[in-house]
TrEMBL record:
It comes from Azospira restricta. It comes from the Bacteria. Coiled coil: none annotated. This is MBL fold metallo-hydrolase. Residues 30-220 form the Metallo-beta-lactamase domain. InterPro entries: Metallo-B-lactamas (IPR001279), ODP_dom (IPR045761), RibonucZ/Hydroxyglut_hydro (IPR036866). It holds the Pfam family ODP.
Amino acid sequence: MKTTQTFFEAGSHKWTAIVRDPAKPGYLIDTNEYLVQHAGQGLLLDPGGAEIFPAVFSALSAEFDPSRLAGIFASHQDPDIISSLALWLEFNPQMKCYVSWLWASFIPHFGGTAETFVALPDEGMAIPLAGLPLQAVPAHYLHSSGNLHLYDKQAKILFSGDVGAALLPADRQGLFVEDFAAHIRHADAFHRRWMGSNEAKRQWCERVSQLDIDMLCPQHGAIYRGGDVQRFINWFDELRVGVARA
């Protein structure tokens, strides 16, 4: 089963990663889910696929009362991001799902009603969590044409969806990047193929370089912290993406 690891805590404000399931079938990609808690409410980021819902729900329940989830944030439309939506809504039909307007009429095929979805504009917007404004940040064409990340100014954390993702071998399963040079080799091919636009990549690097970020949290792989955050942004800025190798 997955486990939870709280990696930021200041009073009632917490970030918890739901990670690493040794029992996960090998044909499924490993994913990180993140829970943001503030003043007793929670927002779940990229809750994952339907097939891992039991593992995510069980791990989350050990940390937080799921009935206090106010919503779900979906960085984009992929099944490993949000195909568990109907299962979460079955437990709590009042939850909102925040997603790019571009996918707001596609993701309902996974579940929900017209009242479920909050369509995020291309420029992003503030998402309130118990009075705390979290900021949806544009990341379009970085894996998905309608793609958004989530910035927490108070915690100085950027949830970066598939940007920063790495497909790690079995002997490198730590929560944090410990050796950037060794780690980034596992991110290289993923970013070259799955990121579709050099211009969009450059805009994202400029945009997030203006944010005060202590930790950059991707949906796959390990968390970048401290100097590795800007180290990753610089590496990504120089990488040529959107080119398939035949």
